[in-house]
Design brief:
mainly alpha, 9 helices
Length: about 220
Amino acid sequence: MGKTEPENPIKVSTSESQPIKFSLLKDIFFSPPSAFETLLKSNELGKKELRSLHFSLIFWAPVFKLLGNFLQFGLKKWSEPEDEVTLSLFGGVLSVFAFYFGILILLRFLDIFRIYHLDRDRELEWQGPPAHIFSVSFLPFSATGVFWILPQPFPIFLLFFSFFYSLNIAYVALQVNSKWTSSQFFFFLLKFFLFLSLIGFVPLLAFNIYRTVFL
C-alpha cells in the first residue's frame, strides 16, 4: 500500500477572517458570552488574528494623543495669546504606544501562564483549557486609545475603568468555560504577579552583584 499524503491545514486568508474579527469586537462590548462562543467555535481566530486586532486598536492611541496635544496647544494659545506655550505637541505619543504594546505582551504571557501553571498528569491525554481568554477580554482596554484626545485626568480614569471591566469579562469567561471560582481567579492573578516579580528580581539582583563586585 502506498503512503497517504498528510492533509495540508486549511489556511484562512486575512480577508476571510475580517468579518469574524469585527463580529468578535462588536460582541465583546455588547455580548461578551457571544464573543467567547465565537472564539471557541471558530478555527479562524488564532493568536495572529487577535494580535492584529489589538494592534488595529492601539494604533489609534498615539494618533488621538497627538490630536489631543494639538487641541490643548490651540486652546492655550487662544486663551493666553501673550504667554509662551510650553506644551510639546509630540509629548507622550510614543509613551502611550509603548504602554499599550507592553500590556499586549503581558496579556500574551498571562494566557500562556494560565494554560500551563497547574500541574497535570502527563500520562493522561490533555487538551488544555480554552486559549486567548485574556487577549479577547482586554480588547475593550486596547480600545481606550481613542480617549487620549480628552484632557487629563479623563483618559486615566477611563483607563482604570476599562481595566477592571476587562478583568471582569475574563473572570466571567473563565467561570463559564473553565468552572473557575472567584478564589481561583484571585490566586491565579496573585501567582502571576509573583511570577513577574521573580522575573524582575533576578536581573536586578544580578546587576546589583555586578555593581558591587566590579564597579
